[in-house]
Amino acid sequence: MEKGKAPQTLEELWKDFDPRKEPLDIEVLQEWEEEGVVLQVLRYRIGIFKGKKAMMAAIYGYPKEATNLPGLVQIHGGGQYADYRAVLTNGKRGYATVSISWAGRINAPDYKVTPDIVQLFWDNKTDDPDYKITTDWGAVDGYHAPCRNPENNFGAVSAAPWTLDTIASPRNNPWFLSAVGARRALTFLEKQPQVNPDKLGIYGHSMGGKLTVLAASDSRVKAAAPSCGGISDNENENSLYQKTIADDVYLKEITCPTIFLSPSNDFHGHLKDVPTAASLIKTDDWRVVSAPHHNHQDNGEAEVTGLLWFDQYLKGTFIYPETPTTTLQLKTTSGIPSFTVKADPSKPILEVDIYYTQQGEKVGDISDRENRINRFWHHAKATKNGNTWTADLPLLSTDKQLWAYANVRYPLDEPITGAGYYYRIYTTETFNLSSPVQVATSEQLKTAGVKTTMKPSRMIETFEAGWEKDWFVYKPKKWELITHKLYNDKWKAPVNAKLAFKTRSAEPNKLVVGVDGFAKEIQLKGGSDWQNIVLSAEDFQNALGEKLPDWTEIKAFKLSANESLTQKADGEIEKTYLGADWKGEKPEFRKLQWFIQ
């Protein structure tokens, strides 16, 4: 960089950076074998910043005695850890993986670095029995959750004592530092004797999704899979940040095949931004996967798509179906919009699901976080005609925009096990492929003469055929049911209404009914008889014992076996535990509805 002048463009920011120039100075901190995979906790050199060496801690692993392996860089999200489970499951599938700890936290057997241990490292308390070596950013601060310097800001380019430059510069931004660390991880991989340097991929979740995009323009990357990030950080008020750190300028440099994992309700990687992101990258070889109702995590049949992407482009053992093509028809003889999906039949098609909502945020509105997380997606039953599926989309209003997209579910040749977004181990026999979301404005709906044929209803859920499509789970190994239906205007609570449903459990159990951060524990008798449940808003309490004041603006409704409620009061976190481990078969439900006496 020219003295006294900061880089003003992406090209200027990276033009003098050679990811191969400096030695790696690899330090192995711990090594072990597990299920035929060799694993190591290690550090490699990121670079020399302001005269001090910076070292990246990471977990590296590969199938024992294997060579010519495809290599993956895995990047954790904010608050997460570099985790051995991703490395282990990938190793069992024939990959060498390095999971980088850009924030300093590590999860491995006998080598766990929590935020408290990161603090011990910062304080150089080597005599503490819990002390462990981890990522060392030296004279700069690329840490997160927390940053080493509380005033460090991932959205800023201003100068500070811990930044590279003494003037406003993109080199001061922690995203840049972490992206350097990710590109150096590619150098680490290509230097390993087990790895084929021409077969490298990169993936990450949340902040790791953005870092995936920031590093995927490296010509060594042959496939990328960003999830929940890398597509929506495009509206920073600082023009220098916007020109050098924002997602869109990096998307324009990506030439490798890319799959975007973007759950429909994600707060960080907005679904509406996927079509734009796909149009910016310099390849037509892209896909998108959007699990309905989910925020910032996914189910196995969506999570596995990243692994399949690498199987295709790094191993040559899989061929992806083409993106389903869709048509949103507003002008129809019935006045009801229709949505048509044409799916690729190159693999057997198990199911085509069409989802739509009128709770999508306005384009450019970054303040609509709660609505984005909790919006409800109607499932529209599709009629099949050859390789085409069509569904009507009845609407409640023409004053709100309409969003619609499709999911196509395919079978796998054999089950695949992987480590998901939060390293939860999943096994799936199917995978999903989505269409980009289509949006029609209120003006377009009215111009087309769309009629409002959907009516408000007190019957929220009948639990009859197909009801599961309107619900979702975050813990597939435990039974639980979550829906955002009560947040939708169709099922808005009438004045003085109570919430009623029927349930039965083969054995006596405790059922927890939750509304946002409030819950009610109910004792189920057990047996074959249906039990009537009628609840008022005041029956629900939070962790502090405060009652739910009313049904206004409730967002998430949940049925589960147990629940942990948390609430902050006077700077302290209060917790309340409800329910218990479930006994026997999961419960049955009937007729969830608003009841007025």
Tell me what the structure shows.
- The structure is a single chain.
- The chain has 597 residues and is an alpha+beta fold.
- It has 3 domains: 10-256, Rossmann fold; 325-455, Sandwich (Immunoglobulin-like), CATH 2.60.40; 460-595, Jelly Rolls (Sandwich).
- It contains 11 helices and 30 strands.
- The strands form 7 sheets. Strands 1-2-3-6-4-8-9-10-11 form a 9-stranded mixed beta sheet, with helices on both faces.
- α4 packs across α5 (207-216).
- The radius of gyration is 25 Å and the shape is globular.
- The mean pLDDT is 96.
Largest sheet: 9 strands, mixed
Low-confidence sequence ranges: none
Straight-line distance between termini: 74 Å
Secondary-structure class: alpha+beta
Highest-level CATH class of the largest domain? Alpha Beta
Overall morphology? globular
List the SSEs and their pairings.
Elements: H1 10-14, E1 27-34, E2 37-49, E3 52-63, E4 69-75, E5 82-83, H2 84-92, E6 96-101, E7 106-107, H3 115-122, H4 174-190, E8 195-205, H5 207-216, E9 221-227, H6 239-244, H7 247-251, E10 258-261, H8 274-280, E11 286-289, H9 300-315, E12 325-329, E13 338-342, E14 351-357, H10 369-374, E15 378-380, E16 383-385, E17 388-392, E18 402-419, E19 425-434, E20 438-440, H11 442-447, E21 459-461, E22 480-483, E23 498-504, E24 509-515, E25 518-524, E26 531-535, E27 557-560, E28 562-569, E29 572-579, E30 588-595
Helix pairs in contact: 4-5
